[in-house]
Design a protein that fits this description.
By secondary structure, the chain is an all-alpha fold. The chain is 63% helix and 3% strand. The protein is elongated.
Length: 431
Amino acid sequence: MPQTPPFSAMFDSSGYNRNLYQSAEDSCGGLYYHDNNLLSGSLEALIQHLVPNVDYYPDNQIRKIAPKILQLLTEWTETFPYDFRDERMMRNLKDLAHRIASGEETYRKNVQQMIQCLIRKLAALSQYEEVLAKISSTSTDRLTVLKTKPQSIQRDIITVCSDPYTLAQQLTHIELERLNYIGPEEFVQAFVQKDPLDNDKSCYSERKKTRNLEAYVEWFNRLSYLVATEICMPVKKKHRARMIEYFIDVARECFNIGNFNSLMAIISGMNMSPVSRLKKTWAKVKTAKFDVLEHQMDPSSNFYNYRTALRGAAQRSLTAHSSREKIVIPFFSLLIKDIYFLNEGCANRLPNGHVNFEKFWELAKQVSEFMTWKQVECPFERDRKILQYLLTVSVFSEDALYLASYESEGPENHIEKDRWKSLRSSLLGRV
């Protein structure tokens, strides 16, 4: 088959060559090269370059090319296993694998191993999605606690886990598990509603599957609301202050671990209006540590401080000698935002109509880095009781949070008073 240089080799150290119109000596059938590296080309020429023909893919030479096909299929099934949840894709894979396996015994064993590994991954994915569905269906309405106020028997996060470091470890367990099930193709399908290289051709719409990516974003929102719920629930001011200080310590431990997603979720929960309006409660809190954390995650200058910390964690991960030092869990919503704007802000084609390899190379770099981070095994011991609480305890909606906040510290103006009355009427059935 024609030899195409590795993708990373398509760009030299001087960056992307923006000379869009190469000389005739550098072109070959609509493909343009620089120093023997493929630089750009029309989509038609790229496809033609890869389409088998009698010169290098005759049926009677299947044994000769079988190792390369097997290598391609192995890398495909390992990197993009979710592609094969589609029954047509799986049938085609098995058909091609059968043709390869009909040759030497070595190929047969490798093909069998590849298929079995793929089936295990897809089975684990299905099991994981069933667990997610079960978790969401078992949540109960915590609003009933507001109606009865059984404070003497009410459980909170501190009674389940009094050590902030232990809670940060269990949050990291959840983060890494959910990251692990996000396939790289989900990033593509999250943004691409149409053929990325043809605005007139619709694709992906029928088979767009981003369930695991969406579930991870839902986890971030759940953790934020859980933090706000735990703070707004206690009747006594000193208990609310203690809860705030507890979550500040948890957030700091998440930062030290490299778990930036949980860190930001906790900060977001503490900055929700129902929490931030509790001025009497915050007056009892030592906020110096919280101020430091907020500075680290400050959104100004495009999250400059956070990005600096993330680069430091990524560098530590590269030279790590233990799983503990390898942990890098990015602020996921910002990662999605970066990929989205890179996808939307750069053209898929160059002015001459050629595919913009520089854009897709940058996209590949970001997703590849994420793929490295998500494969780290969590080194901390699991605590089933704590994990169960974090994943299944019910949390307040935004309206319920406001009501709990007003019940804890009364309305300060007419607008808050009117809203309090409305919420008491709609949520509690009280006037």
